[in-house]
Amino acid sequence: MHSTFSYTTYLVIFLISLIVSIGCSSNKEVIEQPEQQYYELAQRRMNAKNYFAAIQSLEMIETRYPFGRFAEQAQAELIYANYMMGDDEAAHSAAEKFIRLHPRHPNIDYAYFMRGLASYTRDNSFFARVFKGSLARRDISGAKQSFNELSEFLTRFSKSQYAPYANQRLIFLRNIIAKHELAAAEYYIKREAYIASLRRAKYVIENIPNSSENLKALEIMKKSYLELGYLDLAEEVEKTIRINETANQNISDNFLSDIPKPN
């Protein structure tokens, strides 16, 4: 009798455990959404411009399905979503990660392109402060890094569909870098440090060709030469000013709102 009771008891316990286990597994399957559902949810959120929520869905794919069907596309779209949310650091990191993990991916040009864009802020109020404030003292290392990375992108992928965006952005960055150099040159002129001002102006002419600031750089060179007593050189610069008509290329950053998502 005791043996029969024990066997029955163990059988009941086993059946209860099995039912609970099946129930837990079933609940887990309800909570654990399939990979495609996460991806479709991310697309709906991005279409609604809810980039914060879209990032959550894309990161869920990356975490739960790292080798799944949508994993690589999710990683590419994380670059875009972070950038559109204004988190340039996260977008840059996501781009570098994609380049490192998928160097032969069909969307690799997009990763290089977005890495370059993300190196410099999209904050329009920052641009307003740059052009109104003491530009000579501002750190523009981000602009220089962005210029270098976008130049690398164009070297690697000159036929990319994103090349026109990169070219336009490079003009914008070139003008910012030139403005920064000449703001420093003007600062040196006020302090009567004419050799320093001359170096800055010559740097713009020699290293940042075709910027919107070329004419201004020539004017600073002319003034610096005159103040230093190099009248012949000042006259040569004056001839260059008269001969060359420098076109302004003040390109706005409005095109960034039209940056496409990765294919």
List the helices and strands and how they pair.
Elements: H1 2-31, H2 35-47, H3 51-64, H4 71-84, H5 88-101, H6 108-118, H7 124-132, H8 141-156, H9 163-190, H10 194-207, H11 214-228, H12 231-243
Helix pairs in contact: 2-3, 3-4, 4-5, 4-6, 5-6, 6-8, 8-9, 9-10, 9-11, 10-11, 11-12
Descriptive labels:
263 residues, Serine Threonine Protein Phosphatase 5, Tetratricopeptide repeat, mainly alpha, 12 helices, single chain, elongated, 73% helix
What can you tell me about this protein's structure?
By secondary structure, the chain is mainly alpha-helical. It contains twelve helices and no strands. α6 runs antiparallel to α8 and α11 (214-228) packs antiparallel against α12 (231-243). The model is unreliable at 1-5, 22-31 and 122-131 (pLDDT under 50).
Please report the distance between the alpha carbons of the first and last residues. 72 Å
Query: Which class of the domain at 127-137 and 173-263 in CATH terms?
Result: Mainly Alpha
| Mass-distribution shape | elongated
Helix content: over 70%
Largest sheet: none
Number of strands: 0
**What is the chains' assembly state?**
single chain
Number of helices: 12
CATH topology of the domain at 127-137 and 173-263: the name is Serine Threonine Protein Phosphatase 5, Tetratricopeptide repeat
Task: Identify the CATH homologous superfamily of the domain at 127-137 and 173-263.
Answer: Tetratricopeptide repeat domain
Global Rg: 29 Å
Low-pLDDT ranges = 1-5, 22-31, 122-131
Structural class, please?
mainly alpha
The proportion of residues in beta strands is under 5%
| Average pLDDT for all residues | 82
Query: Any guess at the CATH architecture of the domain at 127-137 and 173-263?
Result: Alpha Horseshoe
**What is the chain-wise order of helices and strands?**
HHHHHHHHHHHH
